[in-house]
Amino acid sequence: MSATSSRDPIEPLLVQIGRELARRGPHLRLLRQLLLLLDRLEDSRLDQELLLLLQELPAETLEPELAQRLRLQLQRLLPDLNSSLQPYASWLSALLPDQMPFQAWFQDSLFKLLMSRCYVMNPVLEQKLTSLRRKILLGQVAAEPEMLSLLSQQCQLNGFVWAISPEEKQVLDTLSAEPEQTQLLACYQPLQDLSSKAEIPSLTPIPEQDPCYRFYSESPYPRWLAPERLALESLPDQLQALFNLSIAEPQHVLVAGCGTGQQLAQLALQLPQAQLTGIDLSLSALEYAQTSLSQHQLKAELFQADLLALDHWEQRFDLISCGGVLHHLADPLAGLKVLTGLLKPNGLLKLGVYSHRARSPIWALREACGITGQESPEEVRAIRAQLLTDPGEAAHWLRGTYDFYTLETCRDLLFHPREQAFYLPDLGPWLAECNLELIGPELWQPSFYKLFAQAFPHLPYSDLQAWDQLEAQYPSLFAGLMVLWLRPRAKQPAELQQTDDWTRQHFWL
Ligand SMILES: C[S@@+](CC[C@H](N)C(=O)[O-])C[C@H]1O[C@@H](n2cnc3c(N)ncnc32)[C@H](O)[C@@H]1O
Fold first, then answer.
1. Cis (ω within 30 of 0) for the bond into 222?
2. Could you report the average pLDDT of every consecutive run of 10 residues in the chain (509 residues)?
3. How does strand 301-304 pair with strand 317-323?
4. CA angle at residue 33 from 29 to 37, to 5 degrees?
5. How far apart, in whole angstroms, are the C-alpha atoms of residue 452 and residue 460?
6. Between the N and C ends of the chain, which has fewer C-beta atoms within 10 Å?
């Protein structure tokens, strides 16, 4: 719970009950108690921890009466919540009554909240809304201004990822930019360029022919709305808890390939005293980062740069975070060498790269859909529309990911022109060449650490082969990204001895 909320004695109780519910599932008595307490909560100090627990409840299985009461409370409490609702989007939309006529949706405050503050992550709702938008454009349904306004807000949020039928295209081609048509057009295309045009300096020449440069200039990644202020431990506490590693709070931090700045925003909240720097190839991503960071009163210094050309940069960092970048480079090892060179001697590198096993279902889907990585936004929308209803297991899994639901993130997920993925032992020789060692992986599911300890009670978290064996058994171990904490390898006593010998020989000591 947040520090400000501790004044209300109801809240610790709420959290306790929420935790119990998360453990036991939709337990009726507990749920009733929870609702009674929510009734008494006076303002919107419902914080993220509680929401996180609530969303563990499978909303579809709640009794209609309880679901309705929960909805009413959320409608009252959520609007003022000063943080991202996106993590709860799928759960919140499952709370919407199934059979509500569409006119009633637009009177419903939970629905309005979803449409204006999250991108919808629910295939059924998306299909209904896409069909409604089509009917409005074709003149088959009359739209109230509020309906159009919410539809256009939602489409701006999702980067216009919804499918457009050939009949709609025909009508859109004839639609003029007259003021009365503007709102309708805004459901299909951006009306103005919202990116900042402030100067972002360049540090290196930019390889404009590189497929990554072109891809991310057109499709800045990721689309994000607000930083997640979720239980942000300090980094030293996090590393202490994960790896029993003591570090001082990093002062100089680089996010290499920062994209639109979401990682910078999280780090700015987690390390409020640190000086943050972000570099990226894509100017449009950096402009997005600049606008969004300043909207949230967060600070970072941004530069356009090619990571591969930063080997002469004189800056050094206590912490470098580089997530989702190296596997898109033509030469990932060269990128790793540059990053290592930018670390201070005791610096830490947090590296996120694709896992071969976790990525395999995506590659199978790409093959099945004939995806080459050269698709236009129209082609992406059309292929995605098929996947929205595809009954196969892989498509079902895809629909459970965040990235499926906005245009830019969906392109990154499925339509990238260049990517590779790794088995952990593949990285061993690279780490050795860069004189880096693995501290351990950061896992999305904490229970995997227990599985590791059970399977390999005598091995350290730095053992690449052991993690690889565990991943073979649990292929979702590194779902999304394989996130590795690395540091420069400490010199072994034998090496120190060698260095001493060399020094003695060369300096006649
Ligand atoms: C998948 S996005 C990851 C963005 C960010 N790290 C995140 O996870 O939110 C990959 C980013 O790497 C950037 N990138 C790719 N090649 C690069 C290079 N050679 N130098 C700098 N940035 C690069 C892209 O422009 C893109 O913004």
1. yes
2. 41 61 60 65 54 60 66 66 68 72 82 87 91 94 89 94 95 78 88 64 96 95 76 82 94 98 92 96 95 91 98 97 97 98 96 96 94 96 96 91 94 97 97 97 90 96 97 92 95 50 37
3. unpaired
4. 170
5. 9
6. C
Q: Are 34 and 14 in contact (CB under 8 A)?
A: yes
Cβ(152)–Cβ(186) below 8 Å: yes
Q: Which two tokens stand for residue 268?
A: 């700015």
Q: 176: part of which helix (H) or strand (E)?
A: none
Q: Measured in angstroms, how far is the CA atom of residue 324 from the centroid of ligand 1?
A: 7
Structure tokens at 408: 């830019």
Q: Can you read off the two tokens belonging to residue 316?
A: 């050094």
Pick the atom of ligand 1 nearest to 220's CA: 27
Q: What are phi and psi of 479, to 5 degrees?
A: -60, 145
Q: Is the pTM of this model over 0.70?
A: yes
> If you search the block for the tokens 């061993």, which residue do you land on?
428
Q: Which amino acid is at 250?
A: P
What pLDDT shows up at residue 508? 33
pLDDT digits (tens, 9 = 90+) for 353-380: 999 999 999 999 999 999 999 999 999 9
The predicted structure's pLDDT at residue 169: 93
The ligand 1 site (C-beta within 6 Å) comprises 212, 216, 221-222, 257-259, 262-263, 279-282, 285, 306-308, 323-325, 328-329, 412
Q: How far apart are CA 151 and CA 128, in angstroms?
A: 12
Backbone angles phi, psi at 192, to 5 degrees: -145, 155
Question: Torsion angle of alpha carbons 274, 280, 284, 286, nearest 10°?
Answer: 10
The span from the CA of 26 to the CA of 361, in Å, is 32
| Residue 177, CB-side half-sphere exposure with 13 Å CA sphere | 4
Q: What is the pLDDT of residue 509?
A: 30
Determine the 3-state secondary structure of 322 from DSSP: strand
Q: What is the pLDDT of residues 144-178, one digit of tens each?
A: 888 999 999 999 999 999 999 999 999 998 887 66
CB atoms within 10 A of CB 2: 14
Reported as type and span, the H/E element at residue 389 is helix 377-389
Query: What is the residue-wise DSSP string for 44-102?
Result: S---HHHHHHHTTS-GGGS-HHHHHHHHHHHHHHSTT--S--GGGHHHHHHTS-TT--H
Pocket test for ligand 1, best of 209, 223, 277, 281 (most atoms within 8 A of CB): 281
Tokens read off for 257: 């390939």
- Residue 76's pLDDT is 65
**How far from each other are the two terminal CA atoms of the chain, in whole angstroms?**
61
